[in-house]
């Protein structure tokens, strides 16, 4: 399920919007994951991680974006809506997206700690009471990883016992494979 | 009926709290890999280890501590004897060293081990000399060398064998591997760390929650009933308990029989609210249905009527706790998006408004609260409450056990017994963090989304009645089976439950066992409550399939 080699500019545009949301998250001290929901070539919802500010560990970008979309649209719109998210949806979000019957998910980098669409579980395609959805990984993978790296060299001041990370350096090199995801990076 | 009366009428479920096995236990991955074995001079064994460890550092994420590094002659499994013992050294002369993965280059390994080659044979076997530049695993000896009796070969021969990469889960499995593959050590504590919760912790928590689990689950069901009756949601409920607020068992059994003092440790309850949300300016499903009474949608599953997982009981409970941590102002935007829906929710939220302001107050205050305190009383009132000594001891124990709490309590900890008791739900400033160390009791097996939500929220434990299993659930790790002796049969010591039910024709759900998966960063203890005399026919698994 790799992204078509000639990824059209539409995908690139929307993933860049997701990356901008991720960048915002980084600026506000949240895990830098951003996403946009796209219906009919229009962004109908966008979100970034909000777990620290909200003190609620379930406030991931996908939930924020859906909440925003539902302010103006009925839930049925999600059947023909696509998600662009910088990091593979976690298990929680992968299940939520299936319950909401999203049409397609495009993600940047894989998530080998929590990934729910291929890395750890495959909730988009497993046996379920909801229909499966299509997943494409690897769009702007390196940009998504760099966002995360820039975040994780910081210390988590919100944790009860932050781990000291004084000696960490920002890595800028990449391996070629997307760990755990179904696809390798497309050439963009 | 008001909350107090409802709480008084809650009749505890009767049954047993059973740990949910992890998927690592129910579907053990038997992971094997190649390893080298070399015969070395027994007198140099410690030098061999030093040389190996400095030249080929071990992969700390796979320490492989269950594999013995050396095997004596008599420890070599039967099947390996022909290959390994054919050099004919005496047990007093040589020992076999294991070099497991990551495997070094064979040449490098042979060079490293060259100084430790076995000494000359005391009783050389004329037929099997191995001098000469033979390759590791094919020591085809040149026939001409048959006469030479001298020093043992300067070459180290590397034998390739297969070893188990995961620690054994049972002594039986360890014995089995030792007799077939390579000597393996069973360590009852350490190797299970990611496979399953440490047994001591699991049984300690189970013993701690067992006395009241039936009550909390009955309350979860009462909350569920309230949610369903209102038409705002399905009949699913959640009760969140802070074990730190739990009175000591001696006290609670006396008080538990009457009134609502048994609810002292409950910090929040929440019911399902999936029909309550307006979407895109349209009325909510509950408003469309009109009036009260259960929603007409309850009897079927149509995804478009289901709201979303953030309206499920677990997610709503998490949000209610978060709102306390954030100290949301009444009427804030967040409260409009996620309103408090039910009377019981309101009751416990209000109770949590009461700061337990000093060390003199403990969790044992609610007996008074129950009688008259529909509205939050001034905190001074509680400073008069006499402390029960037992309670102080309880908290003291707890602090010893979990020192991190001291940090979380902030600076107000005066020490001396029950210090540092803050409000029932600590705010961000007071060190409150997500749902750290809380337990959640649910009327149903939560959906996969909620399961991961509870892990991300750092709950300590999750408990639901086995009758509340759902085909869409994410906690069960195996079908309900009649008890099978776990260690029966030495060949496959941990294979039991899945038998017969896993084939595609009968499979109607996945068994994720999400509470304790080694791949995930966060884990929680998972328990099922098996009601006394339970029959499978009553399981929600066979009812309407929806996400709880």
Write the layout of secondary structure elements.
The complex is a heterodimer of chains A (188) and B (548).
Chain A lengths: L8 H19 L6 E6 L2 E7 L2 H4 L6 H12 L8 E7 L3 H9 L4 E6 L24 E4 L3 H12 L36
Parallel strand pairs in A: 3-4, 4-5
Antiparallel strand pairs in A: 1-2, 1-3
Helix pairs in contact in A: 1-5
Chain B lengths: L2 H7 L5 E5 L3 H4 L5 E10 L3 H11 L14 E2 L9 H4 L9 E6 L6 H8 L44 E7 L6 H10 L18 H32 L6 E5 L7 H8 L9 E6 L13 H5 L23 H14 L6 H5 L5 H11 L12 H7 L7 H4 L5 H13 L2 H5 L30 E4 L5 H9 L4 E5 L59 E7 L17
Parallel strand pairs in B: 8-9, 9-10
Antiparallel strand pairs in B: 1-10, 2-4, 2-5, 3-4, 6-7, 6-8
* Secondary structural class of chain B: alpha+beta
Shape of chain A: globular
Helix and strand run of chain A: HEEHHEHEEH
Compute the number of strand runs of chain B.
10
Task: Give the count of helical stretches of chain B.
Answer: 17
- Terminal Cα separation of chain B, in Å? 26 Å
DSSP helical segment count of chain A: 5
Main sheet strand line-up of chain B: 1-10-9-8-6-7
| Global mean pLDDT of chain B | 79
Oligomerization state: heterodimer
Overall pLDDT score of chain A: 88
Strand order of the largest sheet of chain A: 2-1-3-4-5
Radius of gyration of chain A: 16 Å
Order of helices and strands of chain B: HEHEHEHEHEHHEHEHHHHHHHHEHEE
- Low-confidence stretches of chain A are 178-188
> What is the 3D form of chain B?
elongated
Most extensive interface, chain pair and sizes? A-B, 41 and 57 residues
- What's the total count of β strands of chain A? 5
* Content of β-strand of chain B: 5-15%
Helix content of chain A: 25-40%
β content of chain A, as a range?
Answer: 15-25%
């Amino acid at each position: 399920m790799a992204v078509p080699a000639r990824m059209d500019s539409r995908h690139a545009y929307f993933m860049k919007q997701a990356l901008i949301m991720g960048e915002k998250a980084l600026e506000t001290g949240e895990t830098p994951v951003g996403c946009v929901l796209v219906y009919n070539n229009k962004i109908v919802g966008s979100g970034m991680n909000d777990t620290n500010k909200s003190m609620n560990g379930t406030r991931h970008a996908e939930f924020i974006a859906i909440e925003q979309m539902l302010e103006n649209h009925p839930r049925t719109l999600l059947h023909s809506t696509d998600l662009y998210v910088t990091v593979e949806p976690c298990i929680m979000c992968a299940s939520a997206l299936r319950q909401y019957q999203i049409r397609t998910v495009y993600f940047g980098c894989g998530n080998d700690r929590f990934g729910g669409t291929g890395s750890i579980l495959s909730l988009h395609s497993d046996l379920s009471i909801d229909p499966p959805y299509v997943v494409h990984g690897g769009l702007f993978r390196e940009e998504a990883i760099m966002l995360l790296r820039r975040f994780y060299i910081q210390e988590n001041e919100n944790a009860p016992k932050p781990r000291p990370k004084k000696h960490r350096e920002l890595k800028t090199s990449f391996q070629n494979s997307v760990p755990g995801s179904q696809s390798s990076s497309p050439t963009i | 009926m008001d909350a107090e009366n409802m709480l008084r009428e809650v009749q505890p479920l009767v049954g047993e709290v059973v740990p949910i096995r992890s998927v690592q236990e129910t579907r053990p991955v038997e992971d094997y890999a190649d390893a080298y074995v070399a015969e070395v001079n027994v007198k140099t064994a410690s030098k061999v280890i030093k040389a190996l460890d400095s030249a080929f550092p071990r992969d700390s994420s796979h320490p492989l501590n269950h594999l013995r590094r050396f095997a004596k002659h008599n420890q070599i499994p039967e099947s390996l004897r022909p290959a390994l013992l054919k050099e004919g050294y005496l047990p007093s002369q040589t020992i076999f060293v294991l070099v497991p993965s990551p495997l070094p280059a064979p040449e490098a390994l042979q060079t490293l081990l060259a100084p430790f080659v076995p000494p000359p044979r005391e009783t050389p076997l004329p037929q099997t000399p191995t001098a000469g530049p033979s390759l590791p695993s094919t020591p085809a000896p040149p026939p001409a060398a048959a006469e030479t009796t001298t020093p043992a070969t300067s070459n180290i021969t590397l034998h390739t064998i297969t070893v188990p990469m995961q620690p054994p889960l049972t002594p039986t499995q360890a014995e089995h591997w030792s007799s077939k593959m390579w000597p393996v050590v069973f360590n009852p504590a350490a190797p299970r760390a990611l496979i399953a919760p440490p047994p001591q912790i699991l049984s300690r928590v189970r013993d701690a929650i067992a006395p009241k689990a039936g009550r909390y689950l009955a309350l979860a069901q009462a909350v569920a009933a309230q949610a369903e009756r209102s038409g705002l949601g399905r009949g699913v409920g959640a009760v969140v308990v802070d074990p730190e607020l739990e009175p000591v068992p001696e006290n609670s059994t006396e008080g538990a029989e009457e009134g609502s003092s048994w609810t002292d440790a409950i910090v929040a309850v929440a019911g399902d609210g999936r029909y309550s949300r307006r979407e895109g300016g349209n009325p909510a499903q509950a408003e469309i249905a009109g009036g009260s009474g259960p929603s007409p949608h309850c009897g079927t599953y149509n995804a478009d009527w289901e709201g979303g997982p953030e309206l499920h009981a677990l997610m709503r409970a998490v949000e209610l706790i978060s709102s306390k941590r954030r100290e949301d102002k009444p009427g804030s935007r967040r409260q409009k998006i996620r309103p408090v829906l039910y009377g019981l929710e309101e009751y416990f939220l209000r109770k949590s408004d009461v700061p337990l302001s000093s060390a003199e107050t403990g969790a044992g205050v609610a007996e008074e609260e129950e009688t008259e305190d529909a509205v939050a009383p001034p905190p001074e009132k509680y400073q008069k409450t006499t402390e029960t000594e037992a309670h102080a001891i309880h908290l003291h124990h707890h602090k010893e056990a979990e020192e991190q709490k001291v940090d979380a309590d902030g600076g107000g900890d005066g020490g001396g017994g029950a210090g540092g008791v803050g409000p029932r739900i600590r705010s961000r400033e007071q060190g409150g963090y997500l749902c750290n160390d809380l337990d959640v009791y649910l009327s149903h097996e939560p959906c996969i989304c909620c399961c991961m939500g509870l892990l991300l929220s750092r709950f300590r434990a999750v408990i639901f009645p086995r009758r509340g299993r759902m085909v869409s659930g994410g906690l069960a790790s195996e079908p309900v089976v009649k008890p099978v002796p776990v260690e029966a049969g030495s060949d496959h010591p941990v294979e039991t439950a899945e038998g017969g039910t896993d084939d595609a024709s009968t499979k109607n759900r996945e068994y994720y066992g999400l509470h304790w998966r080694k791949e995930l960063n966060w884990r929680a203890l998972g328990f099922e409550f098996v009601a006394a005399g339970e029959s499978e026919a009553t399981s929600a698994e066979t009812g309407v399939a929806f996400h709880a």
